[in-house]
Amino acid sequence: MTKYNTFTLDNGMRVIHLPSDSQVVYCGIAVKAGTRHERSGEEGLAHFCEHLTFKGTQKMSAVQIINAIEGLGGEMNAFTNKEDTVFYCAIQAKHAKKAIGVLCDIVFGSTYPQTEVEKEREVVCDEIDSYEDTPAELIYDEFENILFEGHPLGHNILGTSEQVRQYTSEDAQRFTSRYYRPDNCVFFLSGNIDRKTIAASLNKMVEKKDRPELQKEQDVAALANERTEERLFIRQRGTHQAHVMLGTRAFAGSDPRRWALYLLNNILGGPGLNSRLNIALRERNGLVYSVDSSMVSYSDTGMWSVYFGCDPADVKRCLRLVRRELDKLMQKPLSPTQLAAAKRQLQGQLAIASDSREQFALDFAKNYLHTGKERDLSDIMRHIDTLSSSDLQDVAQLLFAEDRITTLIYQ
Predict the structure, then answer these.
(1) 72-79 long-range Cβ contacts below 8 angstroms, 24+ apart
(2) Model pTM above 0.85
(3) Are residues 261 and 380 in the same domain?
(4) Fewer beta carbons within 10 Å, N or C terminal of the chain?
């Protein structure tokens, strides 16, 4: 079992530390502030604040922030998701105190100067324009907006250029004052640093402040459980290739049925070339370059989907082949041999993926932020081991039914 140190500081910040003999430290601050926390009129603001957080504090300018870590050979980055924003860096263990100080300063001490806001607007707008020129990525956001219509989870993470160009320093300060606070964050570290050093560095850098109670997130349950209207959406985008996405709402991160979907998803369209959809659409019929399925679990809901790109003339045939593979999993349980092989493959993939210390640190940080639980690989393996063929068939029959599937096509 993975041995973590976990504790909570007087200022309310939770800390999770994974000791390691490595002389490279991966550390960061995960903030429970993402797209779903944006109010009406704030679309894209969580991501914009992520960019602006690097643009100056009371102690450092934007250039000084960059040089503080990179000047020591380290790397610093950040990303925004639907439910969180994460700032993190990789650096030699002997410079860990410096990294902790810089991370705390930018997250809790950024000033969001208006001059930097005006410059960064165009940077983010260029990012949006580039994204909109990539239909294979854009379709994911539009599809999620269809499934979660009327809820912030459906928002495009980047927002729109028109919206971003309206944001000011005051907007950034308002949003971050609500969410960039110790009691709404997790500090995480993987590396050869002792717990006392981490606690002392954080206590020195982060003050306890009295703030209003955090706003409750809008519950997805307030939306209709299922779409009852149109389930096929076709967008004329003039693309050379047709882009197709189909899927449905799925399970929250706390729902035990997500483990069966996890394995089903890997069987259908996981990274292995032996996935059923890759065999059916590419290897046997040469209809696509790639096809994959994916799942995501949020705190109170989830999504499962399939994506492929193909010649416009082949869309219907590809959809029939996908439907055939879904029907197989609904109608016939896996044999003991098939089930054992599927488990063996997924567990092997997980073991290899966990060997990336940076990605593993990001994973256990986000898990601790949202669930308060430690991420343990052996526990995940155990969940997979306990799955039965009937578990998988029950989930397939629930989620893969034709009348539950929504389809979006760009052509």
Answers:
(1) 72/98, 74/99, 76/102, 76/103, 78/50, 78/53, 78/54, 79/50
(2) yes
(3) yes
(4) N
